[in-house]
Amino acid sequence: MTKVFTQFMADEAGAGAVEYALVIVLAIAIVTAVSSTLKSQVTAFITQIGGKLNNAVNTIS
Description:
Layout: H1 2-10, H2 15-60
């Protein structure tokens, strides 16, 4: 049993796959955080432009 455990601990065949999976998870987390921040900034910008256009139309009318 000790021999099997020692071989299992020495085997690094799956280590690369685990590292790639962690990098992918980290990248997804970063993209999610950035996109939610960007979404709120774009929404605020569009709302601000809409308000200014509405004021301009009301001024002309």
